[in-house]
Amino acid sequence: MQYLFSFCNVKRVVIKVGTSSIAYPTGHINLRSIEKLVKVLADIKNSGKDVVLVSSGAIGVGCGKLKMERRPNDIPSKQAAAAVGQCELMYIYDKLFSAYNHVVAQALLTRDVIDNPERKAHIINTFERLFELGAIPIVNENDTVSVEEIEATFGENDTLAAIVASIVNADALVIMSDIDGLYDCDPRKNPDAKLISEVHCISDDIISAAGGAGSSVGTGGMRTKLHAADIAMNSGIGMAILNSADPNLLYDLFDGKDVGTRFFK
Predict the structure, then answer these.
(1) pLDDT tens digits, residue range 150-179?
(2) Which of 150, 158, 184, 222 could serve as a FRET partner for 242 with CA atoms 20 to 30 Å apart?
(3) What is the pLDDT of residue 148?
(4) pLDDT tens-digit profile of 121-132?
(5) Buried/exposed 114-133: b ≥16 CB within 10 Å, e otherwise
(6) Strand order in the sheet with 172-177
(7) What tens digit of pLDDT does each residue of 31-64 get?
């Protein structure tokens, strides 16, 4: 079967980065990783693409800045960490993107806003105006004020990224993770695991290949990425999972090269 979708033709992309990709297990920012990511995203923006960054990490970074020994379990502590961490994240993103002459805009979303048609329309209009003005929206869940967000209203930021991709009418969604892509079994347990380069249907076999847990500072896993892929594909959006250790893979993806795992119908 011949598929019409091509990452070479992408004009608007949502890129999601997980906590473990921008922060150490301590919760402190991994400056080397985030600097490499921002440089590539700035260059992709320079090429003429609209870029949206969905960034996890507020709670993890907040825990690090507040010198918490581990990620808290109680809601007030999580919200306090998010309040501190979100401020730190945006400060760093603003400083790094400014070095490449790009303006960033913060967008904190909650499920009730997405589910309300009138408020959703306002969100869409705001994003479109930001694109017209050349800004890069940086999106996260509004963990500081909404208990539901922390307790999994969106599920986690993989799902949020897919929803954002849908509402901004993106051509592609890229999830940057700490793994090369989807394997036929867990590569951390089986050295013979094989990378699945293309997925055109989220079948039972694909779901069974997905593992579970995320990192100690994050919440996601491969199953959440498959859920995001299902949302994206059903919206006519191509999705890819790439290893965040090498942001240059984004160049390869948009050049049509065989990298990561790519999902499209």
Answers:
(1) 455 555 789 999 999 999 999 999 999 988
(2) 150
(3) 53
(4) 999 999 999 999
(5) beeeeeeeebeeebeebbee
(6) 104-109, 136-141, 50-55, 12-17, 172-177, 238-243, 261-263, 198-199
(7) 999 999 999 999 999 999 999 999 988 888 899 8
The two three-digit tokens of residue 15, written as one number: 């890129």
Q: What's the chain look like in SS3?
A: CCCCCCHHHCCEEEEEECHHHHECCCCCECHHHHHHHHHHHHHHHHCCCEEEEEECCHHHHHHHHCCCCCCCCCHHHHHHHHHHHHHHHHHHHHHHHHCCCCCEEEEEECHHHHHCHHHHHHHHHHHHHHHHCCCEEEEEECCCCCHHHHCCCCCCHHHHHHHHHHHCCCCEEEEEECCCCCECCCCCCCCCCCECCEECCCCHHHHHHCCCCCCCCCCCCHHHHHHHHHHHHHCCCEEEEEECCCCCHHHHHHCCCCCCEEECC
pLDDT for 2: 60
Instruction: Quote the CA–CA distance of 21 and 19 in Å, as a whole number.
Output: 5
| One-letter amino acid for residue 54 of the chain | V
- Which parts of the chain sit beneath pLDDT 50? 149-150, 212-220
- Whether the CA torsion 53, 150, 122, 104 is positive or negative: it is negative
Question: Per the structure block, which two tokens stand in for 212?
Answer: 């579970």
Round to whole Å and give the CA distance between 187 and 194: 8
The residues near 260 (Cβ < 8 Å, ≥ 6 apart) are 180, 181, 197, 240, 241, 242, 243, 249, 253
Alpha carbon distance 183, 260 (integer Å) = 10
